[in-house]
Design brief:
alpha/beta, 15 helices, six-stranded parallel β-sheet, Rossmann fold, seven-stranded parallel β-sheet, glycosyltransferase activity
Amino acid sequence: MKVLILGFLRSNDGVKSFGGAEKSMIMLANSFSEFGHDVHLVSLLGNHVAYPIDKGVKYHYFPDFKGNKILTHIKVMKNTLSVIKKYSPDVIISFWLHPVFYGYKFANSKGIKFIYSERNDPNLEYGSTLKKIRDFVFPKLDGFVFQSGGAKAYFSEDIQKKSKVIHNPLYISYDAYPFKEERDNRIVSIGRLSSQKNHALLINAFSKIAMEFPNYNLEIYGEGSLESNLRLLIKEKKLENRIKLMGTTEKIMDEIYGAALFVLPSIYEGMPNALMEAMALGIPCISADCTPGGPRELIKHGENGLLFKVEDVEDLVNQMRLVLNNQVSATSIAKNAKNICLTNSADKVFKSWDDYMQMVAKQ
């Protein structure tokens, strides 16, 4: 089967994108190629590839475009239509909403199946205009993959009937990173430095317990537009020696392995790869109980992780104290968290993707 996977691999001032959607898009292409499909992976804007693409995948890209929004949309529309016409796939899978708008009508006219993969909170990610266009276009698509039941439940019954919930895959075997009883005195977090990821809340929470836990430091991995704001906040809290902005790294799992605690403070998330990977490493994890419910599907509170109310700094502080003050409980939570390596193994996840794609293609 010929499969066309659409998305973008843009950069932020020359920095490669290490986002979850970009990773999932590339890994899905690699797996479909291994299954024997003829896979074309297309970045409609940019060529900043942060993850390896298998030789069997035919990778194509269009140069990034830094013009105004209207010109950018025109560029994406032309790029979308050109690749659909050129490669004439059996199935299109888009990890980006805009190619859906620009390509669905032509795809429908040629009998090409179109699947959209929702990567975030469908209620918060888009403005009112995009939502109106989305609600008009979506009934005309052939399939949808959602990362959580909460994201799926947002949509109409008709869309839910032709959709499937598939969590993100993990490429970490259970034994790849042996469980560590003794841990470094580091609290870690990973994510783009943006308002959505809400690192300011974590910095404020850490400032409230910094004196209580003088041997612990906070490391935040990621880059983004709010870096200068966060540095100012750290300086304001007089914690320059205790809180470090670490930037991005290609070996993030090696970097955070052995940390005492992982925190995901996001306001909303799809299915957070960073949280899944931290759990797989056997790190005690705390996450915001954010919409549309991805963390809640991964974490059973008190069993394999802890949840706190979104944007509630005091609740986060209390959960951090629970972990840092009780090593027995922290160890139990971390050991249970590692089971995600089994439930979300890449083999299982991509088998689900392939089964669903084959079903849609036959309809």
